[in-house]
Amino acid sequence: MASQQPRFGVVTDPEILKRLAEYRGVWVYAEVDDNQLTNVSLELLAAARYVAQKTKEDVSAVLVGYGIERFARDLIVHGADRVYLIQDEKLKLYVSDAYTEAVSQLVLAKKPSIFLFGANRNARDLASRVAGRVNTGLAADCIQLEVNENGQLEQIRPDFGGKELSVVLTPKHRPQLTTIRPGSYKPLPADYNRSGIVESFEPRLAEQHSRIKVIKSVRERLDPKEDLEKAKVIVAGGMGLRNKDNFKLLHQLAELFEGGAVAGTRSVCEKGWLPHHLQVGQSGKTVSPKLYFAVGLSGAIQHLVGMQNSEVIVAINIDKEAPIFKVCTYGIVGDLFEVVPLLIDEIKRVRIERTLTKESVKAESAGER
Amino acid sequence: MPNILVTVKQVVDVDSLKIDRATNTITTVGVPRKMNDFDKNALEEAIRIREKQGGKVVAVSVGQQSSRDVLKEALAMGADEAYLITDQSIPEFDSRAVSHLISKFYTKFGPFDLVIMGEGSVDHFSVQVGPRVAELLKLPQLTYTRRLEYSGDSVVAERDLEDGFHVVRSPLPCVVTVAQEINQPRLPTLKSILAASKKPINLVPPSQLEINADMLQPVVTTKTVVPPKTERKKVVIDGSKPEEAVQTLIKHLTQEGVI
């Protein structure tokens, strides 16, 4: 019986294979928000280049909006071979109707094989509706992409509330649509020697494509101390903190670092110990700071998928079996209420010593003269 | 008076899931099931509109027979009618198939003025059924709604974006997906649970819904296998003497150049 089971996602029907072969190229959706190209647009280009080098295809960016042509160059220097420029006054602000129509017309005309979107809300909204319009599959909130031996895109995403990762294939439909969590890839450094083509595309947008009216667009700026995606150092707490008040301890540690922020696990935010926008993990933010302190948190996969791209991970937990110790760079098995205050004192001491040493070196060299 | 369709999904309680490390698979058999958290917010919002405006709240679910439980819960919360689209031959549908079933249900059992859904489901979190249903029905969609105002011929929604929000107006009918911040779902009372137990759960086989075979074909296939990548040093220090442990850690972090 088992031998009759088709292998995972393998397509053998020549008719289907012929149809799939008509689709070529790796696309990314480039989003302009608040007169800026979003960072995730550049992250998507990095992901696309990685994939395109395996599938031996070109990378194109689809830039949608109004008065946005100046961003085409940014996309090229960060990895796009081609930029499709879609401009229309109806596309000034994001609305699903007009954006879906514009992007779908381009997809149907040019037939890309792969199309990547950010997993931010408006881009998810768009990707889902485009998937419906062009009748294909969509793997949402992916954190990693690979290409298998059959040239299919392996879309890797947390599943079951982040208990485990899944590989999703879109075997018989094209394009393979994916949304990728912000922070999963790092933008490639700008290469000003790169050249690319900018191609304008004029969609036919009718009245029925603007049923939804944006009455108000409001930006809520994050306190820089709470902007986890930009934070250089994150001190994250879990249920081991025992109550809301104890997060003061984590704030003290975070304040020692420029660009330091406090974050928490899902449970902590659900308890109301921290606000929801400080949640790291599958249903929260994906972060990649230089230094990540995981304090009193066990390291459930749903949390790990949000922070595993951090450079150095320090775990502090009383339970030596906690899964966080299997992914950390350094860990202390101990009581956080003993360890963290000591750590704060030691970092302060080291910093003072460092300053003193520098000053005494200066004083000595001054004395030699 | 609005006729509101609300979708509810029975999901496994992900906190109770166990992973079989030998086969690297997740077993969902025997795991407790519950109503998707976001769907409670959708129901709550629909019931609040009905309480003000009159009309009717219809709950529909796509899933196995056990999904009767979440429909009972929906009735206990205050839904007026409950329907279960179920087919034993197909254990689980993917997002596209579910969307086809819901949109065909809408067409057959409508007209509805409003469809309210959760922004996603806590099990797979594919966050796409709302827009897919809207697309199949050619209706406007308002996703990630955290505030909703209904007036006879339109809705105004506050859509929660990462660093701000949009206030949008849409004509009716339309599809709204709600974020958890939108409300605090009510708990059914003993009285409402008893009343709900007397109401029927109407079974709807897909064959009643003008569904063709292609609509139920999966467009994605999923394999749950990959353990998270771990390529770190994993230097774990015994903290029974905290002072020494912290000293050791500080040495390492100084070498890394991060303090």
Description:
The complex is a heterodimer of chains A (369) and B (259). With 369 residues, chain A is α/β, with parallel strands linked by helices. Chain A has helices spanning 14-20, 39-55, 72-77, 96-110, 121-134, 247-254, 266-270, 301-307, 336-368; strands at residues 26-33, 36-37, 59-65, 82-87, 114-118, 138-142, 144-147, 153-159, 164-169, 176-180, 197-200, 213-219, 233-237, 260-264, 291-295, 312-317, 330-333. In chain A, the strands form 3 sheets. In chain A, strands 1, 2, 3, 4, 5, 6, 10 and 11 form an 8-stranded mixed sheet that branches. In chain A, strands 14-13-15-16-17 form a 5-stranded parallel sheet. Chain A starts with 13 loop residues before the first helix and ends with a helix. Chain B is α/β, with parallel strands linked by helices. Chain B folds into 2 domains: 3-216, 3-Layer(aba) Sandwich (Rossmann fold), CATH 3.40.50.620; 229-259. Chain B is built from 7 helices and 15 strands. In chain B, helix 2 (68-77) crosses helix 5 (190-197). Chain B is globular and about 70 Å long. The model of chain B has no long low-confidence stretch (mean pLDDT 92). Strand 9 of chain A pairs antiparallel with strand 14 of chain B, so a sheet runs across the interface.
Number of beta-strand segments of chain B: 15
- CATH architectural type of the largest domain in chain B: 3-Layer(aba) Sandwich
- Write down the CATH topology of the largest domain in chain A: Rossmann fold
How large is the share of residues in beta strands of chain A? 15-25%
CATH class of the largest domain in chain B: Alpha Beta
CATH homologous group name of the largest domain in chain B: HUPs
Count the helices of chain A. How many? Answer: 9
Based on helices, strands and strand pairing, what is the structural class of chain A?
Answer: alpha/beta
Distance between the termini of chain B: 63 Å
**First and last CA, distance of chain A:** 88 Å
Question: Could you give the order of the helices and strands of chain A?
Answer: HEEHEHEHEHEEEEEEEEHEHEHEEH
Family (chain B): Belongs to the ETF beta-subunit/FixA family.
Domain Electron transfer flavoprotein alpha/beta-subunit N-terminal (chain B): 23-213
Protein name (chain B): Electron transfer flavoprotein alpha/beta-subunit N-terminal domain-containing protein
Pfam families (chain B): ETF
